[in-house]
Amino acid sequence: MPEMISELETAFKDQASGKSVPIARSTVTLAHEGGWIGIMPAYLPSLNSFTTKIVTLYNGNLERGLPAIIGTIVLNDPKTGQVLSIMDGAAITAMRTGGLGGLAAKYLSRTDSHVAGIFGAGVQARTQLKALVEVRGIDRALVYDTVRARAEKYSNEMSDVLRIPVEVAETPSSVVKSSDIITTVTPSKEPLFDGSEIRLGTHLSAFGNYKPTEREIDTQTVVRSKVYVDLEEAVLEEAGDFLIPMKEGSFSKDKILGNLGEVILGSVKGRSSDEEITLFKSVGLGIQDCAAASLAYRNAIKNKVGINIDLS
Fold first, then answer.
1. 153 is catalytic
2. What range defines the domain where residue 248 resides?
3. Which of the listed residues 37, 138, 164, 251 has the most CB atoms within 10 Å of its CB?
4. What is the mean pLDDT of residues 102-130?
């Protein structure tokens, strides 16, 4: 995870300084099949990495005994175009998403933050907490999930892995009122908690929902926060967390203060006091996959793992 956070920092610096090549995500909705396909290419010169991620979302897969989300990443040599690696996207996506939560907290949360609140208890919720422990002195965590058994499993597992108490929260309110850093990684279509209950000085990172008509966080949360994003154009196209308040007339795009990469470079000011509420919204970018896949490939070569295949 420390390596992952470092790679992402390089990636977002590249983005903010104009070194990365911006390539728009292409999406296709297969309404008849109940599916969605996203194609996410990215190029990071600083990491000498070019990747294409193909991700699919089929909610009906759960009934078929298959994952709802399936991802595959192809890594090419940017100098020759040669395919270097094909890798499953699940672990890559979990690591890069968790790592980004850690990176955002590094630059936007209070340095004395020590209690983490996690909404959702899936794979990405695990990497989010692992990343937060790396960047802040987290000594306690709370988890809330609509399926209590899932939250209990998460609590037991993460307590053992991180050697800190990870408690199952009875209500969303108890998470919000107790946490210094709040992270949401759920597929919820409705706000998870009441934004008026957020304590001053809290940092929030919202990763779960990226559909224009749905949201994890309410208007009150957005209005009370200093807002930062992974990429403004992307969130204004996909994030209901902002689009719904904009439709209500409660929020406007000029209230987005900047991209995380700009905060890292110092061209946009991040947190300026311990009383501010900060919010980071991510819909996911190809540069994250590009950074994570490059790191995974280099480590695979170093540790001599993986399967060599001949595509010729």
1. no
2. 102-284
3. 138
4. 97
